[in-house]
Design brief:
The complex is a heterodimer of chains A (114) and B (113). Chain A contains no helices and ten strands. With 114 residues, chain A is mostly beta strands. Chain A is globular. Chain B is mainly beta and 113 residues long. Helix content of chain B is 0%, strand content 58%. In chain B, the strands form two sheets. In chain B, strands 2, 4, 5, 9, 10 and 11 form a six-stranded mixed β-sheet that branches. Chain B is globular, with a radius of gyration of 14 Å. The interface between A and B is medium-sized, with 26 and 27 residues.
Chain lengths: 114, 113
Amino acid sequence: GAGVSQSPSNKVTEKGKDVELRCDPISGHTALYWYRQSLGQGLEFLIYFQGNSAPDKSGLPSDRFSAERTGGSVSTLTIQRTQQEDSAVYLCASSRGTTNEKLFFGSGTQLSVL
Amino acid sequence: GESVGLHLPTLSVQEGDNSIINCAYSNSASDYFIWYKQESGKGPQFIIDIRSNMDKRQGQRVTVLLNKTVKHLSLQIAATQPGDSAVYFCAENRYTGFQKLVFGTGTRLLVSP
């Protein structure tokens, strides 16, 4: 079956502009995660969605970052007034449940802020 | 603090050798661990996982060892192949109401033919 799909694969934007990144999780997966990966670094947790519950936003680095998940499926990560330090790969993952379940990752969106 | 670290940033091996990638974790309450492989331009790909009630688990050409006493995790790859060249991440699950995976910075494995 199809894996986690992210779009766009690459995004170049100017400092101060807003960007939207999209994630289509695996069908039937109730949990959805966003991670950020800076060059040569590990993965930094951003936000988590589980079903219809309120998302856990504890990893969002500032109030310029927000995310939503419509209909329990597709998710959009929005970064407002982008800064150069926002440049990174943004990875989305989904899993079947909440406890000790492997995460399946998309290929990510490479964001470059000029 | 919260950290999952790796002992070596880069590991170079010859094709056919066995590779061992090490990982230290800091939270003794973590109950689930995963190894991921990430090739250039791709997202992390699941390799193998282990729960804290086990100390060893084997997959196809890979073995994960967990030593809870010293909070150490290792990934062993048998008969390493050029296609194994990638960055390998260990991740530790700290269940705080949901599955929150904390990742290390990764080890780059370079396999020479």
